Each structure stands twice: as C-alpha cells, then as structure tokens.
Inverse folding.
C-alpha cells in the first residue's frame, strides 16, 4: 500500500496579514483571486483542517487515518505507543505581507488551566524582503511590570527584541516566548499540533470582518516566560541539526546535481520540506515549497532520491524517545 513518499493537498487559510506569494514563489494556484492567504497548512491532523493524500494506487486517505489505522507501517514501531490521538506535528508555510500580532503560546504547565494547548515551534525563513523583521523574546531588562505598562500604553513592540532575518535563518520558538513574524517574510513553520495563540498586541488594526481582533492580555501574561533570555538564530551542529527538542528534530539536507541520497533508514518515518532545487523519488518529483512524508516501511531503495539540480531541504523527525 505504501511504496513511495506521501504528499498531501495543501489547506489554504485566509489571514488579514497574508498575501499572494504562494503563487509567485511556488507557482501555486490559490483558491480565490485577490484574497490574502497567510497560511498553507501542508501536513495537518486537526479536526477541521485535515490533510488528504492520494497514494500511488489511487487511494485517498487522511493523515488522521494514517495515524490511527496504519501507524506502525507509516510512522514506525517507535511511535506505536505514542499517547497522542493525532499526529503530533503541524507543518505550514506562512506568507506575511503585514506584521502578525505580537503573541505567545502557553507552556505545558499553564495551558490546561487556560483551556489551551502548548505550542513549541520553529521557523525557517525562505524569503525575506529588505528591512523585514522578526520580533522574538522580551528585551533584556524589561520586567513583567514594565511590560504590563507597555501593554497599557499600546507600545508593546518596544519591549520585544527585534531581529533582522535573511533567507536561510532559523529560529526556535518554545512555548512561553513572546514573538511575531514581521511583514515581508515567507516562513516554513514546524510546530506541535496546537492552534492556541494568545495575542498581546495587534497593531491596533481590524480583521477581515472589519472588527478589531480579540486580544488575550491576561492569558498572555500568564504564559510569557519573563526569565528567558531573548533568542538568537540557530546554527547547524556537526550532524546538520538546526533544532533538537522534545517534540521534533530538524536537520538540513543538501544534494548536488546528479547525486543520489537516501532519506533516513527503514523503520523510521520523517517529513521533508523542499527549500530550493528539486528531487525525485521513484516516479514522484518535488520542488521548492513541497512537503512530503517518508513512511517508515519504505525500503532503502524506495527511500533513494535523485537530484537533477542542487537541492536543499529540511528533514523533520519526531524523537523516538516519545514513543
């Protein structure tokens, strides 16, 4: 049933801060003309945002069905005992043509009492306009009391560190870290399977419905880790890892034109996100902007990829210790 990489139909989300660069950068056809699409959910096992795959035999199957009915074959024996009822990760492409709200996701020890879910994530910048910014972490010396005053004054951004990213930069965003993606950025995001976001500040704008978007000031103050130092961009280690945490491990993969590479080993699953170039596996081809899942049951031969031009991608794994 599973003899090649699995890809899924993207799920497009309109956002007040979105744009149309999914068309211009990745050659996609967006569902409606002149509508701002801020997010493309590439691999999603959410109740109302469910990724659907078409397998090589023509079968249509959801990611949730793969997780609940074919877990060992697709995700490997190490995750058979994973307690989550849904695939634990969510992967997106974000197109920010305006600043996102300054926001925070609740840590695991706070989320239950707030009625939300924790969300740790990472960002890989694939496109950056000149002058684009990322807001991440409370600035050194800004106390909780000072931050509360900035909220009251409508000047929250003055208390948040500003980074100036370029394509290829990677940032790790643990739960509890205040953050915002700035205008002019296209980002690959890998995160826990959660959709809980608390907005601290939204630049005094209105949503697509013409109404001010809700803020969650008290929930944000409960969630922000004021003791954590502001983050810096990640650097790859000797094994090519960009991020390694309890929830996911992210590595960079590269291959020169004409080279053959094997994705992982039989018995493990991983996901790939193509940053640039193209690669093929069997009869399937993938280019920039494509995401795919490598089933655990694939043999070494079925995991072989060929590159006609130089390719650069992310390899996304769930640590086996979770199983």
């Amino acid at each position: 049933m599973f003899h090649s990489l699995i890809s899924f139909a993207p799920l497009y989300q309109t956002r007040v801060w979105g744009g149309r660069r999914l068309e211009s950068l990745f050659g996609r056809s967006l569902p409606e003309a002149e509508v701002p699409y801020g997010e493309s959910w590439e691999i999603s096992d959410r109740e109302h945002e469910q990724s659907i795959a078409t397998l090589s035999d023509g079968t249509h199957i959801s990611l949730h069905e793969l997780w609940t009915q074919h877990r060992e074959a697709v995700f490997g024996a190490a995750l058979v005992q994973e307690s989550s009822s849904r695939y634990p990760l969510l992967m997106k492409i974000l197109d920010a043509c305006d600043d996102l709200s300054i926001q925070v996701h609740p840590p695991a020890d706070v989320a239950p009492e707030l009625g939300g879910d924790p969300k740790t994530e990472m960002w890989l910048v694939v496109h950056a306009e000149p002058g684009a910014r990322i807001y991440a972490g409370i600035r050194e010396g800004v106390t909780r009391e000072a931050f509360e005053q900035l909220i009251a004054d409508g000047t929250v951004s003055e208390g948040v560190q500003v980074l100036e990213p370029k394509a290829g930069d990677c940032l790790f965003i643990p739960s509890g870290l205040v953050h915002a993606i700035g205008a002019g950025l296209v980002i690959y995001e890998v995160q826990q399977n959660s959709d809980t976001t608390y907005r601290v500040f939204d630049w005094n704008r209105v949503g697509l419905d013409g109404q001010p978007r809700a803020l969650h000031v008290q929930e944000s103050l409960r969630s922000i880790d004021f003791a954590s130092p502001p983050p810096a961009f990640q650097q790859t280690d000797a094994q090519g890892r960009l991020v390694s945490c309890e929830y996911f491990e992210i590595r960079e993969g590269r291959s020169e034109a004409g080279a053959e590479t094997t994705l992982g080993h039989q018995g493990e699953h991983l996901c790939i996100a193509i940053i640039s170039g193209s690669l093929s596996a069997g009869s399937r081809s993938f280019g920039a902007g494509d995401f795919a899942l490598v089933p655990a049951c694939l043999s070494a031969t079925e995991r072989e990829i060929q590159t006609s031009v130089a390719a650069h991608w992310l390899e996304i794994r769930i640590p086996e210790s979770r199983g």
Summary: Residues 68 and 85 are 8 Å apart (CA to CA). The radius of gyration is 20 Å.
